[in-house]
Amino acid sequence: MLYFAYGSNLHHFQMKRRCKDSIFIKKINLRNFRLTFRSKYRAADIEPKKNSIVPGALFEISKSDEKKLDVYEDFPILYKKHYFYYYGKKIMTYTMVKKTTFMFPTERYLNIVKRGYRDCNLEINYLIKALKNK
Q: Whole-prediction pTM value?
């Protein structure tokens, strides 16, 4: 199965520890969505926004990896699954169930996401823009 990561799961070491079968394929952009942070966990979320982009990573994951991610993402309470197509391939990601207001992430969480941006060679300006909540 193909999985799109856009938050802490971009961090390669953390993702491999969480999902032992996962394979990083490449970086991709999810179009017409924007990155934000919310909930009491101050975690990453995506929401529809025209002409906006969420950079992220495409991973190949196993069924057991998906089950581990479901637990980590507190599916279906905190996050629900969202499917989209990228060049004809079905891809799964997670979006938050309750769209609470913007909450600035903790320093620890943000550092993991920043490391993930480096691991995947993503443009940091998208993350900076999300942190400004614009």
A: 0.97
